[in-house]
Structure formats: structure tokens, C-alpha cells
């Protein structure tokens, strides 16, 4: 875990709250998976609970204000989704078109981590600057990352595209707490992957935290039940503890888990766009 994580988290919230801009926050759904609890929670049998169905959704996030549009993650490719049995509803480009936008309207893409469902759509966003954690980019180029359990959630073509983005001088690699834009702050949240990032966003009602895959599901956070895919179990537990502390921070109005279908029931849909959930209005 990043040393002194609680101090880093408090610093990130303070930096975000002090930002000079506020942002609209939208969750944009691309697909879903109806699966089983035993398939999702690591070592589910340990809890002594019955198995049952569980719905996961696959989304990326749009942050926008009068000045620019920032994406948090780029979604998944059709091949990345269908090859893993996911229901694929729309491409990243089509999802943006439903918001009246094209890839050219995007100022920057923040990558939370390099799994297939978070960077598969980068190839549709040609020429866009990308920001991600240095630790994340470095890890996927190491021999350690080539174990089958780790490699199963990345696609080589996506990693090659990241390399091309870097070769073109459009990849920014960051460490620690980082202000991506006024009112948008990146916070290290490792465990699921070495360079997982949570994204703090200043809105008109307070700080919204996009946990991305630091928290896949609400239950993971509420009950301290890690997700099945992780590179460091102890770091994952520590990140969940940090997220629970952030949830109680007076400046934080919401923590948005990355794949929980309940997100769409807690927040309203955007009029005319059934695949878009409004986390915070402009």
C-alpha cells in the first residue's frame, strides 16, 4: 500500500475540494454480465453463505463542464467483451454519440487501470492524451504480469495501443496524489492492480469519488469482501479501509463503485439516454 494512505486520501480530498472548477459526472454503460456471487467474490465459500445471482454492469465515466470533457476510462472493445461472455450493448464511440459527442470532443482520458474493460475503447479515441499511474504502466511490461490469472483480464492489443500512445508522446505517467485538472484529483488505490487509481471529482454538491475497480461492488466495500481479481490481497484490504474512511469524510457526497448495477438505481437516468446515469449535475 502507498505509505500513509489516510494522509494521502485526506490530502486528495482537500486538493479536490479546493479546485477552481466543478464538473458534471455521468456513468455511461456499455454492457453487463449476469453471473453468480461465487464467481465474483474471492473465495466465496469462506463466508458460509448460499450462492446466488449477481448483476455486474460495465461503464466508463464522463466528466464535463463548459470548458472541456474528460473521460475516466475508455470502456471495452467488442472483442474484449464478447470473448469473455459479457453482454455488449454499444461501443465507446456510440456511447459518446448518445451524449451528442464525438471522440474529438474529449480533452483527455484518465485510465484507472489497464484491464480490458477499461482500456479496450482507447483505440476509438485516436489522438487523445492519456493519463495513468506509472506503476500500472510499468507492471504490465514485466514478466510478473504474465501469469495466466493476471493476464486473463488484459488484451495484448490494448497494451500495444498504450505503448503506441506513449511512443506518440501522449501518455502522462503519474505518481502519488495528482491533480489532473482543477477539481479532478487522482488517488492511488492499489490492490486490484498495482497502479489502480480512484478519481475524486469536485461537483456542485461536494466531492464525488469514482472508485473504479478499487471497489467493484457496494457489498465489497460494505462487508470487506474482496473481488476475485487482485494482485495484492493485503493492499486491496487496505484500499477498502481507506475507501470506507473517505465515505465518512464530510466533503464527500458519494463513492461510486465500478460495476454495481445498483448505481443506476441510486442516481437518475439522463433524459433521452437510457444508458447514462447522472451521478452529479453540472
The CA-CA distance between the termini, in Å, is 34 Å
Number of helices: 11
**Structural class category:** alpha/beta
Can you name the CATH architecture?
4-Layer Sandwich
Q: Tell me the series of helices and strands, N- to C-terminal.
A: HEHEEHEHEHEHHHEEEEEHHEHEE
Radius of gyration: 17 Å
Largest sheet: 9 strands, mixed
CATH third-tier fold name: Metallo-beta-lactamase, Chain A
The rough form would be described as: globular
CATH class, named Alpha Beta
Average of the residue pLDDT scores: 96
* Helical proportion, percent range: 25-40%
Tell me about this structure.
This protein has eleven helices and 14 strands. The longest helix is centred in the last third of the chain and has 15 residues, at 233-247. It has helices spanning 5-17, 37-40, 78-82, 92-97, 116-119, 134-139, 148-151, 156-167, 218-223, 233-247, 263-266, and strands spanning 24-36, 53-64, 69-72, 87-88, 108-110, 130-133, 171-174, 178-181, 184-188, 197-203, 206-212, 252-257, 269-270, 273-280. Strands 1, 2, 3, 4, 5, 6, 7, 13 and 14 form a nine-stranded mixed β-sheet that branches. It has a single domain, classed as Metallo-beta-lactamase, Chain A (4-Layer Sandwich), CATH 3.60.15. Helix 1 packs across helix 10. The chain is α/β, with parallel strands linked by helices and 282 residues long. The radius of gyration is 17 Å and the shape is globular. Strand 10 (197-203) and strand 11 (206-212) form a beta hairpin.
